[in-house]
Amino acid sequence: MQRVAEAVADDPAGCAALTVTGLAELTGTSEATVVRTARLLGYPGYRDLRLALAGLAAQQQSGRAPAITTDIAVDDPIADVVAKLAYDEQQTLADTAAGLDTVQLAAAVTALAGARRTDVYGVGASGLVAQDLTQKLLRIGLMAHAHSDPHLAVTNAVQLRSGDVAIAITHSGTTGDVIEPLRVAFERGATTVAVTGRPDSPVTQYADHVLTTSTARESELRPAAMSSRTGQLLVVDCLFVGVAQRTYDAAAPALSASYEALAHRHRATRRGS
């Protein structure tokens, strides 16, 4: 993988012109190694890396300042960075909201509201989103667990059954560590939900309900790990609020109790008291 990474760094234009087979031959590696390298660099696959290399090569030929994202250059003032990122986040949220299937969302909310137990799978940045959802559900008295360890995810999925819910969060929809436990949960009869930026990806094969996030704001150095998380968090908030509405009589007291239990940790204390 180091040889592949060095090759694309040294000659982005030349590598952009190569197929996955061609780059494997150039670096004396295998096609699988090239694909793994692309994923390690934050791209869903070699095709996405190849497009990024082509864009980088065009930028170098134009003489423009190197880009950190599609719109932000290394010499941009910090005020411009803030404004551009804020606009980008707004667009991601707007695109996700516009493309979100509210019928699928309502069905997922119904399943969550009545679930005996909810397991949420996610790794990397998506794992942070999985934790966010489970913490929200726990605050309103629902049994929920986030799993980022693939072994624990599968062993827990084996225990699921009809009446339980399993949610997989993966922007690319191709993350094996997330797909496998969702498949197991699906086969065990649990209601399954996929939160993904690619509705035709492998993870959706095992999803009863698919919630799609925006894919429009990806760039060379701001890949799924950053931009897609914004859309994922919006979907998570929609799920949580929907469940809180459905279970309000139980959720409101549980939320109040959780606030009260933590209140003393947020009060300022006097020195020596």
UniProtKB/TrEMBL annotation:
Gene Ontology BP term (one): carbohydrate derivative metabolic process
GO molecular function: carbohydrate derivative binding; DNA binding; DNA-binding transcription factor activity
Start and end residues of each SIS domain: 108-249
UniProt-listed InterPro entries: Homeodomain-like_sf (IPR009057), HTH_RpiR (IPR000281), RpiR-like (IPR047640), RpiR-like_SIS (IPR035472), SIS_dom (IPR001347), SIS_dom_sf (IPR046348), WH-like_DNA-bd_sf (IPR036388)
Short name of one Pfam family: SIS
Domain HTH rpiR-type, first and last residues per copy: 1-60
Lineage top rank: taxon: Bacteria
Keywords: DNA-binding, Transcription, Transcription regulation
PANTHER family hit by this protein: GLUCOKINASE (PTHR30514), HTH-TYPE TRANSCRIPTIONAL REGULATOR HEXR-RELATED (PTHR30514:SF1)
Protein name: RpiR family transcriptional regulator
Species, as recorded: Streptomyces gancidicus BKS 13-15
